[in-house]
């Protein structure tokens, strides 16, 4: 709904190895210049303001395109994976409550399932996969 059928055909026929987000901006610039020549835009200051705002928006689109183009390096995901598993291992060992040096009667081994540590690990591992 943003383009006419003729504009869509022109847009689709344009060959470019990259995204074509910039084409409507060029069209806008040409139409604004034409409107100035025809007197629909009264003075050059208004045209300059329009073009400055359009250029700002185009630079934001270009920045967004750059973020999309450059992927997150694989090393970051590997570092996060290592950090999650190391944190889980440290929690598993560090959250044991029994001090074996005290020699508590009937408590030779602290065997329990660390439910909250497991839940925390599942959440972190799940977020890592996302």
UniProtKB/TrEMBL annotation:
<keyword id="KW-0472">Membrane</keyword>
<dbReference type="Pfam" id="PF01062">
    <property type="entry name" value="Bestrophin"/>
</dbReference>
<keyword id="KW-0812">Transmembrane</keyword>
<keyword id="KW-0407">Ion channel</keyword>
<feature type="transmembrane region" description="Helical">
    <location>
        <begin position="75"/>
        <end position="97"/>
    </location>
</feature>
<keyword id="KW-1003">Cell membrane</keyword>
<keyword id="KW-0869">Chloride channel</keyword>
<dbReference type="InterPro" id="IPR021134">
    <property type="entry name" value="Bestrophin-like"/>
</dbReference>
<dbReference type="GO" id="GO:0005254">
    <property type="term" value="F:chloride channel activity"/>
</dbReference>
<protein>
    <recommendedName>
        <fullName>Bestrophin homolog</fullName>
    </recommendedName>
</protein>
<feature type="transmembrane region" description="Helical">
    <location>
        <begin position="109"/>
        <end position="127"/>
    </location>
</feature>
<dbReference type="GO" id="GO:0005886">
    <property type="term" value="C:plasma membrane"/>
</dbReference>
<comment type="function">
    <text>Forms chloride channels.</text>
</comment>
<keyword id="KW-1133">Transmembrane helix</keyword>
<keyword id="KW-0406">Ion transport</keyword>
<dbReference type="InterPro" id="IPR000615">
    <property type="entry name" value="Bestrophin"/>
</dbReference>
<keyword id="KW-0868">Chloride</keyword>
<keyword id="KW-0813">Transport</keyword>
<comment type="similarity">
    <text>Belongs to the anion channel-forming bestrophin (TC 1.A.46) family. Calcium-sensitive chloride channel subfamily.</text>
</comment>
<dbReference type="GO" id="GO:0034707">
    <property type="term" value="C:chloride channel complex"/>
</dbReference>
């Amino acid at each position: 709904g943003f383009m006419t059928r003729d504009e869509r055909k022109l847009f689709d026929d344009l060959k470019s190895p990259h995204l074509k987000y910039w084409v409507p901006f060029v069209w806008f610039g040409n139409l604004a210049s034409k409107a100035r020549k025809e007197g629909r835009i009264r003075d050059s200051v208004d045209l300059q303001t329009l073009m400055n705002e359009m250029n700002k928006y185009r630079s934001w689109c270009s920045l967004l395109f750059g973020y999309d183009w450059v992927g997150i390096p694989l090393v970051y995901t590997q570092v996060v994976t290592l950090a999650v598993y190391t944190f889980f291992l440290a929690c598993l060992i560090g959250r044991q409550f029994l001090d074996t040096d005290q020699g508590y009667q009937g408590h030779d081994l602290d065997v329990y399932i660390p439910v909250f540590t497991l839940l925390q690990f599942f959440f972190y591992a799940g977020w890592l996969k996302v």
